[in-house]
C-alpha cells in the first residue's frame, strides 16, 4: 500500500539532501509506481532533475567523421509541426530542438531552456495556470539569427492557428497567451489549470524560427520552403533532403553546447525494411545505428552473436494495436471516404468488434514474434504504471467468438463467411510493410477464418503508410480500410496519447487528416473524461480518469491491443551516448553521441 504521508516525507528528505534522488526513485518503484512517475512527483514538489554527468568529455567539437543512421521508415517532411509519425519527428530532430526533452527516467532535461521550471525556482504556478521558461542565451539559428523569446511566442501562434493545420495543435490551443518577459524568458499562461504544462515546446514539439515561417502562418503553411530545408538550432545544419530517401547535415560550428557534437556530419538513410536495417548495422557495419527494429527477436539474437553490433532495448509507452474503423471506408461523401457522415456497415455492431478481440492470439504473437521486444497486453494504456488498468484481461477464444456472432444473428453462408441483412463479415486489414506485422496479420487472419470472418491483408510501404502528405490516400490517418495496425506511444503523460479518441480530434478532409482520432469513434462520456483530465490537478483522481478512458476504448472495441512494445534499436559495438528513452525521440541526445 502506498502511503501518501510517507511519500511526502521522502520528498522532503530529497529536498534537504538526506536522501538521494536515485534512492527516492528506487523506493517509489518498489512501491509499484514507475521511475517517470517518481520524477514527476519530485518535479511537482520543486525538486529539479540534474542532467547525468557525461562519461565522454571531448576537448573540441567534431573530429568523429560521419555518423550514418538508418531510418527504414524514411522522413517525408522536415517541419515538426506537420509530423504525423515518428519518422518525421526524428528527421526534424536532426536540425530542430525543444526547450527540454525526457530522459529514460522521465526527467525533463534542458535543451533550449536554461533551467527546468519548478515551484521552488518560481517557474511554476501552484494553481497550474502558468509556467515561466528561461531560455538559454547565446543560441543561434543556423543562419546566424539569434534565438529569442519571439520565436516561442510565434510557435504558439503558428501551431494554435487552425488554418495552419499543424499536427501539434493539441499541445498549443489551450494556451491563453505566451508573454515575452524579456529576450530570454517567456510566460505561458493557460486557459485553465494544466497538469501537463510541459507538453508545449517540449519533447517532439520542436521550435521553428519565426523569421522563416511567419509569412507562412495559416493557410499558406504548406508553402514554406523551410518545410523541406530546415534552419534550426540543433547540432547539424541542413545539407540535403530527398523525401522518403535521405537526410544530410553538416556539423553546426556554432552549436550552443561546448565541444559538441562529436561527429562531423550525419546521414540519415531511408528505405528498406527493419531486417535489412538490422543487418546493415549488426552484421556488415555499414551503418552506425538503426531505428525501430521491428524484427523477430531470434533474428536479432543471431546477429548479436557476430560481435559487430548489439540490440538496444528500452521500456516505452508504445502499444502495437489494431484499430476498428467506425465509418465506411468504401463509401464516398463530399469527396471523402471514411467520412463522419457514414457508419461502418458491419463494425458498427459491438458483437463483431467483441468477437474480433477474442480472435487475436496475443500469446503466440509475443512468443513467436516479439520476444524481448514487448509483452502481451489487454490495455491500450500501459505506462506509466499508475495508469494501467487492472480491470481488463486478454483472452484468445475462437469458440467464444463464434458463440457471440451466432447470438448476434451473423449466419454462415455456403462459403463459410458470416452475413446478416445482406452484409458480409469481410474486412480489409492494413498495416505497414515489415515482417512482424505481416506475421501478426497472418495469425489474426487464420483465427478469424475459424469464426467465419474473411480477412483481406494489405501491407503498405512504411514511408507511405506513415506519410504526412494530405493527398496520400494510403496513410493511416485517411484509414481507407476496415482494420489497421501500427504502434503508437501514449506518452509520458497520457493526455496526449488518449487524445486519439477525443471527438474534436477526428481526422477529416477539412483538417487535411491532421487530427489524431483516426478511428472516427465518438463518445460523449469519453469526451467529458478527457476534458476533465486536462485540468485535474489531483494525480490520483486523474489516474482514475485515464484508467476509465482505457477501459472504454478497449471494452467498446475501438482498439484491440496486441503488444506493449519495448523500444528496440540496433547500434554498432563502438557507438555510445544515445541514452535511449521511451519518452522521447531516439535522437533526443544526438549532440552527445560518440564512438568509443
Note the topology.
Blueprint: H1 4-16, H2 21-30, H3 35-44, E1 66-71, H4 86-93, E2 100-102, E3 108-110, E4 130-134, H5 149-160, H6 169-172, E5 175-182, E6 185-190, H7 210-213, E7 236-242, E8 246-251, E9 265-270, H8 274-282, E10 289-290, H9 297-304, E11 309-324, H10 350-358, H11 362-370, E12 374-376, H12 398-407, E13 411-412, E14 418-420, E15 423-424, E16 426-432, H13 435-449, E17 454-460, H14 462-465, E18 483-489, H15 494-498, H16 524-535, H17 539-555, E19 559-572, E20 575-576, E21 594-595
Parallel strand pairs: 1-9, 1-10, 16-17, 16-18
Antiparallel strand pairs: 2-3, 4-6, 5-6, 7-8, 8-9, 10-19, 11-18, 11-19, 12-19, 13-14, 14-15, 20-21
Helix pairs in contact: 2-3, 8-9, 10-12, 11-13, 16-17
